[in-house]
């Protein structure tokens, strides 16, 4: 499964060119914020535009994961796409 994550910030900070491409393929501006990170339209625009898909201050990348589910986690303002079994967290009691 291909999943979009932001390598130097957090969130889907898409460029105007990426937003226009999504509109051209039928994704409304209101629906962009509800796209899941694995949706083909989003993955395709990142693959097609490369660096030009990212807004200033972000770097959108694609992770290829061998699984049916994933977690987007943040650390030091960076995102990581990981499989649930790879995600290590501890409860603070």
Separate helix tally: 3
Largest sheet: 2 strands, antiparallel
Per DSSP, what share of the residues sits in E-state strands of 2 or more residues? 15-25%
* Helix proportion range: 10-25%
Question: Rg from C-alpha positions?
Answer: 14 Å
Globally, the shape reads globular
Distance between the termini: 35 Å
Oligomer: single chain
Q: Can you describe what's shown?
A:
- The chain is an alpha+beta fold and 93 residues long.
- Helices cover 25% and strands 22% of the residues.
- It is built from 3 helices and 4 strands.
- The strands form 2 sheets. A two-stranded antiparallel sheet has the order 1-2. It has a two-stranded antiparallel ribbon with strand order 3-4.
- A hairpin with a 2-residue loop joins strand 3 and strand 4 (78-82).
- Helix 1 (16-24) crosses helix 3.
- The longest helix has 10 residues, at 40-49.
- The radius of gyration is 14 Å and the shape is globular.
- The mean pLDDT is 88.
């Amino acid at each position: 499964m291909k999943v979009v994550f932001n390598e130097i910030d957090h969130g889907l900070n898409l460029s105007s060119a990426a937003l226009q491409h999504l509109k051209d393929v039928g994704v409304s501006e209101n629906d962009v914020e509800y796209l899941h990170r694995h949706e083909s339209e989003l993955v395709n625009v990142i693959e097609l535009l490369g660096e030009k898909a990212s807004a200033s201050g972000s770097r959108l990348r694609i992770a290829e994961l061998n699984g049916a589910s994933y977690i987007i986690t943040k650390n030091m303002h960076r995102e990581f796409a990981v499989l649930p079994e790879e995600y290590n967290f501890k409860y603070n009691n």
